[in-house]
Each structure stands twice: as structure tokens, then as C-alpha cells.
Design a protein that fits this description.
Layout (H helix, E strand, L loop, with lengths): L3 H10 L6 E2 L10 E2 L8 H11 L15 H11 L5 E6 L12 H12 L4 E6 L3 H7 L5 E2 L5 H10 L2 E5 L2 H9 L3 E5 L22 E5 L10 H27 L1
Parallel strand pairs: 1-2, 3-4, 3-6, 4-5, 6-7, 7-8
Length: about 250
């Protein structure tokens, strides 16, 4: 399927060369690489691009810088007692069928409050949208930007997010993550996207709902995944403490 949104973007960027995946019939892309395997991760795409330049498939990782002004804005939210968990929840994506619902986020916050631990919940996303939700026991940045999102993910003990850029930020910082995917198909290829775009690092877990929308995922399934991840983080921290104590 031809994606004219991407073609318009290329028109404005006006690059000399564009490597395209599965772009047969469009002369704008050269070279064109065929990639129709929904079981292989997006990093394999990156290695295929490296091969075009005769570069070895060496290990690579994300790198994100720091905006001092964003760090200053977040300082009051990120400063907390050592025994308090910071849970970052990102409800929104670029597609309505991947977004969390207000009920899911409110239910997860209420569930966290019932656990025998101190939690601070910081929401990621547009302040105008989060303000309308009027969620108690959670904070958000009114004038949020991509840079404030980066700082939240960098500092969080756990991130909970559907399929969007927040997942890849968490990967960059190796921040523990619970990610939720639906059965969406990619625009260009029609392939199921959840394996291709999975978090793909040891500190992350992900659920795939067979419902059309992420907001249809039962709340108890979301809470159970978060509980399991928090228990895993707690065990890891206890193990590190024990080793350091010896």
C-alpha cells in the first residue's frame, strides 16, 4: 500500500537518496529492500541498511541527550524519598486504537495505591488531554514536550505504555517497561507489527491483546502484568543489595 504521507514528508525533506523497504513501484526509493517477515525485529531492518554501506552488523543502541531546561521543569516531580516508586504511565499514541482509556489508567492508579508500597504516578502526554481526564493521585506536566518525556522515562522506576516512541525511550535507558500492543497491521506492508516493534530488551515485558483496541484490554490483565514486573524489579534490587552487602 502506497503511503502518501511519507512521500509528502520526503518531498519536504528533499534528500538525495532514500532507502525504502517494500516500496516497489515507487522510483523515489533507491535502493529498495524487500522485507516481509513479521517475526523479525526492526533492528534487523537497521542491519540491512548497514549492509548497504558494507558495514558489519555490530551491536548498536539508542542514544538520547538531555535538555537542561526540561530537567529543571521536572525537578519537583522527580525528587522523591528513596523508598518511593516513580511509575510513569503514557496513555496516548498516534492512533486511537492503540491508546489507553481513562478507565484503564484510573484503574491502574487505584490498583497501585492498594499495594504495600509508596508510589508516585507521573503521566506522560499532552497536558490539555490529561487535564480533561481529571485523574486523582497522578501528576503531569502541563506544557509537556518530547524532552520532558525523555526525562521522565530516564528517571522512572517503571514505565507503562502502549506502542509508541515512549517504548523506545525506555529501551534507550534500559528502564523497566510494561508495553501493550494490539493486532494492528503496518501501513506499508500489512504485516502484524507487535513482534517487529517489540521492546526487545531484558528489562521489558509486553502484552498483545487480540482485541481491536488496546483500550479493550481487561484492566485485571494490565494490573497483573504491572504487578509481575514490580515483583521482578523488587527481586532484582534485593539481589543487588545482598551482593553489595557481602
Amino acid at each position: 500500500m502506497r503511503n502518501y504521507e511519507r512521500l509528502r514528508l520526503l518531498h519536504h525533506l528533499a534528500p538525495r537518496y532514500v532507502i525504502g523497504f517494500n516500496k516497489s513501484g515507487s522510483a523515489r526509493y533507491a535502493p529498495q529492500l524487500v522485507w516481509l517477515d513479521s517475526e523479525r525485529h526492526i533492528t534487523e531492518h537497521h542491519r540491512a541498511v548497514l549492509a548497504q554501506f558494507n558495514l558489519p552488523p555490530a551491536p548498536f543502541c539508542y542514544s538520547l541527550g538531555r535538555d537542561p531546561s526540561a530537567a529543571d521543569v521536572l525537578a519537583p516531580y522527580l525528587s522523591r524519598p528513596s523508598d518511593e516508586w516513580l511509575i510513569a504511565i503514557n496513555p496516548f499514541t498516534g492512533s486511537k486504537n492503540k491508546d489507553f482509556s481513562r478507565e484503564q489508567v484510573a484503574g491502574l492508579i487505584a490498583h497501585l495505591r492498594q499495594r504495600n508500597a509508596r508510589f508516585r504516578v507521573l503521566l506522560i502526554g499532552r497536558g490539555d488531554l490529561l487535564r480533561r481526564w481529571e485523574l486523582a493521585n497522578a501528576a503531569f506536566i502541563a506544557d509537556s514536550t518530547i524532552n520532558t518525556a525523555v526525562e521522565i522515562v530516564r528517571s522512572a522506576d517503571l514505565v507503562v505504555s502502549p506502542d509508541t516512541s515512549i517504548v523506545h525511550m525506555a529501551c534507550a535507558f534500559n528502564t523497566p517497561l510494561v508495553a501493550i500492543y494490539n493486532m494492528r497491521r503496518l501501513k506499508d506492508s500489512g504485516l502484524l507489527g507487535y513482534n517487529i516493534w517489540a521492546p526487545h530488551y531484558d528489562s521489558a515485558v509486553w502484552l498483545v491483546t487480540d482485541q481491536p483496541r488496546v483500550s479493550d484490554l481487561p484492566l485485571d490483565a494490565l494490573c497483573s502484568a504491572v504487578d509481575d514486573k514490580l515483583s521482578d524489579i523488587t527481586r532484582q534490587r534485593a539481589s543487588v543489595t545482598a551482593v553489595m552487602g557481602n
